[in-house]
Write a structure and sequence with these properties.
By secondary structure, the chain is of the alpha/beta class. Helices cover 33% and strands 26% of the residues. The chain has a single domain, classed as Rossmann fold (3-Layer(aba) Sandwich), CATH 3.40.50.
């Protein structure tokens, strides 16, 4: 698998500042929605896929849940462990790429009562076949009647107006080429090919993975709800039930 930009320490460190600035202020509202939607009693186990610096994991642990956070970035996980210690919560943070989750957790006889995958955390950068494999892994790790809440880019937006003509967007394959400028001071040239999904594709992937239902809603930082997705929304949310 192509190396993820998040494995680059300089990029991850610089991105952390931007993520904190953009997303930390809305975390409390997102957590309130997640807790209400998962509808689990305190003590239940929740898997946070692509947990980053732990902004959701830590708040869920504060609310009394048993949380396991998975991320590919060593730098992000160092920060997550530091912040968890400062918040006086115990969380299992694991450095792992998403394709290795099933083997890791099955080896440890782990299962979960709920899962979240927020802010394009892994899905999209693998290609649709591997994205489907990841969703199947999550389905296998969840107990019956559990939910997965995931957010990802709203691919429908890319097909509207002049955006469809963007040089970085391959509308035939639904992929967007992301890259840092050539003069980026980190040295290594970082690129990532992202598969963006229209809502019906995202629903199909989740249903092919085995989930009995997959509902699509709009979302934005600090405003998670069950409002109807609009074509020009940047992100979409899928609530899947096993």
């Amino acid at each position: 698998m192509t190396k993820s930009p998040w494995e680059n320490e300089i990029f991850a460190s610089e991105s952390l500042e931007s993520i904190d600035r953009q997303f930390l202020p809305g975390t409390r509202q997102e957590i309130e929605f997640i807790i209400e939607e998962l509808n689990l009693p305190p003590g239940s186990s929740i898997l946070d896929i692509g947990c980053g610096a732990g902004r959701h994991s830590i708040e869920l642990a504060k609310a009394g849940y048993s949380v396991s956070g998975v991320d590919i970035s060593n730098r992000m996980l160092k920060e997550a462990r530091k912040r968890a210690q400062e918040s006086q919560v115990n969380i299992s943070f694991i450095e792992l790429d998403v394709l290795s989750m099933e083997n890791y957790f099955k080896k440890n006889s782990a299962s979960f009562n709920g899962a979240i995958c927020i802010c394009e955390s892994g899905l999209g950068s693998l290609g649709w076949q591997k994205d489907l494999s990841v969703l199947r892994m999550i389905h296998q790790l969840l107990e019956d009647n559990s939910k997965l809440i995931l957010t990802t880019f709203n691919g429908l937006r890319k097909y509207r107006g002049e955006r469809v003509k963007a040089e970085s967007f391959d509308f035939r394959n639904g992929t967007v080429l992301w890259q840092l400028p050539d003069d980026w001071h980190g040295g290594e040239k970082l690129t990532e090919l992202m598969r963006v999904y229209i809502p019906s594709e995202m629903k199909m992937l989740c249903e092919f993975a085995g989930f009995t239902s997959a509902e699509v809603f709009r979302c934005e930082p600090g405003n998670f709800n069950r409002d109807q997705l609009e074509p020009d929304d940047i992100e979409l949310m899928v609530v899947c039930k096993k």
